[in-house]
Write a structure and sequence with these properties.
alpha+beta, Alpha-Beta Plaits, four-stranded antiparallel sheet, 7 strands
Length: 248
């Protein structure tokens, strides 16, 4: 699940106006399947709020950001929304990453309330995505990644490259694994640019990899960015900047 937070301050005396506006806008905001809107008010300051947009997965998030940029209804609603603000918004995007239902089992057992079917499905979908990535590209150990790039026997090469922002590393089973699609001399120079963009916008390596391996409305024919990473890396980088900089 992708969660987008819009932190802002409403104009003095306009709190109820904002609530009415969001109820009016909700049918449009939640029109695509897999999108939900929530509103939270600060307990410390009655004019400060967080508007929260929840997306079922990266593909839904990506498509909705495209809608924000191009749909006249969304542009008109956002203009009205900005007219109610005294300050902001500050935008943050997070991803809930789970390693499958099996890893959730202890938490589910200990929880005092039942786990929603939506959370269970999202966790399983995320785990399935990682398994597909591993099957198609490989999620290599540090030694395997070094060997793939011609540094056989160098156990520290991959971790050094990851820390330097030149390699994407994802946490799996308590250790870092390295997606095989980036371990290509023709692709490697662009990985550092992609990592730099991600870190600028507070995207984790896990989020970047899942985005690369998901169909994107910003790619020709809704292809996956990873499929064009070698042939048209500049297009992928431009799409990454757009995806990581939501237009709100």
């Amino acid at each position: 699940m992708i969660v987008l937070y819009l932190h802002a301050r409403v104009l003095p005396g306009r709190r109820e106006d904002l609530e009415r506006f969001l109820e009016e806008a909700r049918p449009v905001y939640e029109e695509p399947a897999g999108v939900a809107l929530r509103l939270q008010w600060s307990l410390a300051d009655p004019d400060v709020f967080a508007e929260i947009m929840e997306y079922r997965d990266l593909e839904v998030y990506e498509r909705d950001q495209e809608r924000v940029e191009t749909d006249p209804r969304m542009r008109a609603l956002l203009e009205r929304w900005h007219g109610l603000l005294a300050a902001g918004p500050r935008v943050e995007v997070f991803e809930d990453v789970a390693e499958g239902l099996s890893s959730l089992a202890p938490a589910m057992t200990a929880a005092e309330t039942s786990v929603s079917p939506q959370l269970a499905r999202a966790a399983q979908a995320t785990e399935n995505a990682w398994r597909e990535i591993e099957h198609e590209f490989g999620l290599l150990t540090s030694s395997e990644a070094a060997e793939r790039m011609g540094y056989s026997g160098n156990r520290t090469w991959a971790s050094a490259q990851r820390r330097a922002g030149r390699l994407l590393g994802v946490r799996r089973g308590g250790a870092y694994r390295y997606p095989g699609f980036q371990l290509d001399p023709e692709v490697a120079p662009f990985v550092s640019e992609l990592v730099a963009v991600a870190r600028e916008h507070d995207w984790s390596d896990e989020s970047v990899v899942l985005w690369l391996c998901s169909p994107s409305a910003r790619m020709p024919g809704d292809r996956r960015p990873v499929d064009l990473l070698r042939d048209d890396p500049r297009l992928v980088l431009d799409a990454a900047v757009s995806a990581m900089s939501p237009q709100w």
